Amino acid sequence: MDSFDSLTESTFILKPSKRPNAKSSITENGGYAPLLQGKEPIECMELRRQLFEDTWPPLEKQLVEIEAQVNHIGVSEVCEFVQSSYKQAADCEKGRPAQPFAEIAAAVAFAGVNTGDHGKLFYTLQGQLKEQSHHVALLESQYCGSLTSLHKGILEQMFASFYSEHDDATKQNSFNGSKSVPYDLNLLRLWWEDAVARDTANASRKMVVILQDFEGFQPIVVDDFIRIVAGYCNVIPLVLVLGLATSYECIHQSLTKASISMLNIERFNLQRSKQCIDTAIHDLFVRGNNLLSFGAEAYKSLLDQFLLYNFSIAGFIKKLKYAAMDFFYAQPLSILTQMLSTEDGVLTVNERSIKLNPDHIELIRMQKSVQRFLEQKADKTGLDLRKALCSDEYFQNIVLLEMMRQLVAYRHGYNLGIAAVLEIQKYAPESLQKPIRTLHYYGLGQQFQDCTHWKTLLAVVRRMKTSEMEPLLKAICGLVDSSAGVNWKQLEDGENIPDMLHSAAQLLDNPDNIAKVTTPTSAEPSKRVRTRTDMEERPFLLFDSNTSDAQLQALERCCEAIETMLKLCLRSYHDVPLNEVFYYRHSFLLDATFSAQPRAAVQTALGRSHYYINCNCCSEAPQVPSGDVHDSDDEDHRVLPTMHDTSIAYRLHQECGRLINLYDWHSAFSSVIERDSSRVPPSQAEIQARFMRSVEEMRFLGFIKSTQRKTDHVVRLTWGM
Fold this sequence. Notes:
By secondary structure, this protein is of the alpha/beta class. Helices cover about 55% and strands about 5% of the residues.
């Protein structure tokens, strides 16, 4: 441990003595390695690589198109504002004397806290404005620390965008960015007047200055820039676009009232991350056309990273790509995805035979969902269980195809169930309406009978009156008829669902048919007295006394039909065969990769440094007397003199309170160091120097800080772990 004097020093790089001439097998195969303990054929390994290359690019393209489609709405609103700016003011000022200054058209664009996606969003806005022949300058705070640099960025981008539209002869007179040129708006005014004199079409164009991250700019720089621009607004049609990440109050906190009064502000909301995620989840996961789906734990990790951190679409795509890579890199059964294909937007089973290794088939048989499927089929349909377990050809050609059909049927049925829930939510109170990302989590995480939200929606259905039930049942029947991909025969007890819904709709249209089927006794009245239970289940009976018993029975039939369909379609994916393969569930891998916890890593390294430094002397347990029980917790709290100095100081500081006396801390540190009998006892000066270095390293790592209340004390900042 003497060679590692400090935990905060640079890492040591041990270079190999000789550079290998041949490439490793991992590099040759693009990172793919044979699985199944090295028994996987090379053809299957290449097939996994090919499947990933065929699966991810279309998926990424679809995500990018969804993001562009959702952001197009907000970007178009800003472009319309730029196009119509100064026109209304010019119309109003006709026949009036000119004012000493004009208001600057300013669009305040709230882009959300996902600052990582702002660059792409404002670049899209810049491109769309340039397509409308406007001159655009996109500025970032890191390059505009002063007013001069702000003017320089505007002039260079404006001139570059203008002269890029002309021929080479005109470019020779273009602005070359010389330091001798004064960077001010007077030069921009002269250039604009010259451009309008050359071509009158330039008069209809606007100069747009986009401040991408307004919070990062110096307030005094933006304030001075607005005051200067206000003097040129009568000559230059300049429009400001202020990109915000926090709130609109930031403008009032950064700018003075005089500057704000010079702005004609209009607000725009460009934060549409949630709408984008809802669309992506519906198209990728709910519709069931994607080859890879997420299990409940992995989906929760994917959603929490987005909702609880930064609303970043780019981070969502990266996490999705990492899961797809892990699926095709580390899952040998990922080759089963070639049995699925998409035809006209509908997921189907490709019944062509695939080449499976006996190890692949044995691994499929070992899945719990497959074992449960074989047992159920043996009990209900008389499946030859012995043949399915012993014959690989029979299992692959008969059993595997049947399981894939059930998987595809479940996905289509799940899509139909979520669509029906969305229809029901239209008639529910606003507080009960959940976005599709939440509905998908409910569908994955719980069984139908255990989900509170499903029960609440069924209660909403039972409280509906006839005028509300008719359009709802008509919409659900339309969904059932249009879902051609649902194979009701593959779903358990699902053959009667379409007939049940249509018969319930017919009874709701003609409730008197129920009275013809039933044989009422002569003593039973045609309309019984309503009880308190009837009023609680159907509150509309308090205000509608004309509803007959036949209509109530028809409503009850409709509720039963809807509930039966939802129970069948929204059952958990754990009941589906091969769910271990096609539903990604490595949430711990996603959390460890994208939700790093540096504090926990540093505390673990200091608390158990021998695992990181590979030091055996620190991990040796003390001799336990015979008859005593060794407590494993003592190993985590004991302080040994062979440990690293910072680890010793860290473990000692865990025994202190909020304020740590430096003298007591030094005394305890010294007593631990002096216990080391294997070395020459160090001097007090050396112990003090080592203690001071350990304290400074802990201050650097953020565990302690100095305090003005007591100069000989430090404040402890971390607790737990």
